[in-house]
Amino acid sequence: MSLLTIGTVAFDSIETPYGKAEMVIGGACTYISWAASYFTKDIHLVSIVGEDFPKSELDALESRGVNLEGLEIVKGGKSFFWAGKYHLNMNGRDTLVTDLNVLSDFNPILPEVAKSSKYVMLGNLTPNIQAQVLDQLDGSQKMIALDTMNFWMDIAMDDLKNVIKRVNLLTINDDEARQLSGEHSLVKAAKIIHELGPEYLVIKKGEHGALLFHGEEMFYAPAMPLAQVFDPTGAGDTFAGGFMGYLASTNDISMDNMKRAIIAGSSMASFCVEDFSLNKLKLLSLSEINSRMKGFKDLIHFDLL
Amino acid sequence: MSLLTIGTVAFDSIETPYGKAEMVIGGACTYISWAASYFTKDIHLVSIVGEDFPKSELDALESRGVNLEGLEIVKGGKSFFWAGKYHLNMNGRDTLVTDLNVLSDFNPILPEVAKSSKYVMLGNLTPNIQAQVLDQLDGSQKMIALDTMNFWMDIAMDDLKNVIKRVNLLTINDDEARQLSGEHSLVKAAKIIHELGPEYLVIKKGEHGALLFHGEEMFYAPAMPLAQVFDPTGAGDTFAGGFMGYLASTNDISMDNMKRAIIAGSSMASFCVEDFSLNKLKLLSLSEINSRMKGFKDLIHFDLL
Lengths: 305, 305
What we know:
Two copies of one chain form a homodimer. By secondary structure, the first copy, chain A, is of the alpha/beta class.
């Protein structure tokens, strides 16, 4: 089944305790699409870049089965740019630069063929832009997932709640789940967030894994402990891309399959952080991915007597 | 097999966002012993209290199979007292009062019968006191576990390393593992800590679960997401007590059984935090514990295709 991905395609400059990467490829939609491309070859990307974005990068996405009809390239424009520096413990980061550039005029127009995508991943963007995408869908979707962040909760909570109401799945981190619900317990937060609309909630906890909530059901996926985390940038988007790519390819939204999809997303995220930018994500093989997914199974396996 | 537990038996005053508990029963050794008593009835407790410690509490421990021959009761003395206040998010706490009282003269003397205990849990104490206990053991132990904290790393790192060298298993939290090893990656930290002596390492991550490291093997146990965490005090000690109680009762230190023991410890800790002090820990049934352990299995279960 086809997957529609919306979000930023951008440049990043990143500094971590392990090194620097200047003006490398980034953006939520880029990470989502690359991660999903290991599972499905029927992806529609909707985003906006400037003329400065390398054609070779777009060619690489197309060669992965990503349809770029919905990518607007602004003549003479500059692509969205983000610069950040991670703290010594990698658990926090400071944003140094946010240049919206062409993103400030983003007015997503879905190609006709993308409007019936059965799976939709709305990357983190202004809630009203996310809503504008929903307005154009034909209503035949099986799963619409939305990613957002605390920034929108701080400045546009009403808009955000209006768009959250319209999706099936929300993906946020643990602090954001607490902020959105006003509850410290994630179990209670999940109940409140279900009442806002989404029947599925994925709480991302970074190095501590992820939780999937659906009705009374709860699933805890660990994160893979790694010898080296070089760069956490894009890990959440990569998780979402792997998750939605897996769902689109299997076209099965049973809880059992959603759990496998969470493991697929966690596996992709674990690769993402092992190098800067998309460096590692671009070079994976399916056997590496399957082996990492099996590694998750081994990591948590125990038998009760 | 018999389990020897060493540590504090004390009074606590606790304030959390959900309420206050004044001068309630606390202490590492108390939590360890109560948690272990659901798995084994052959426990030797070594600690020190003042005359102010309620006889009814000691009777209750004895009725759980805890031998108190090694508990020194100081005539006219006052028991160790700790007061703390948890932050709004429950992830941090401030110590308000630490009155060592009789603990400052603690000179643990093992009863003859306890020296051959096959399982030993050294609760968090001055490293030199922990070493003094090791000096009295007869050398026939199958598993000696040691709990400690950042405080001793700050002021007595050499003493701590000397005692860590002599135990089979170390249990600390993730920040402490990073401090002890100087490595941010827990995978790398585990390798360095193995080189310090212990062939097993348990890293406690509170609401994010626990990791067990042994050689190249790694096991990730989640924490149970709970609707209400009333009081995290004693959760780490309860975890250790459940873990060591399970090992002592099964007398099997294969990796497969160690994993079950981690789940037993995690289950006991999940009950501990659901009420103040030992309130919930004192009232459990084996069927509740088995059902919680099964709950952990369900929480993480997934099948790969």
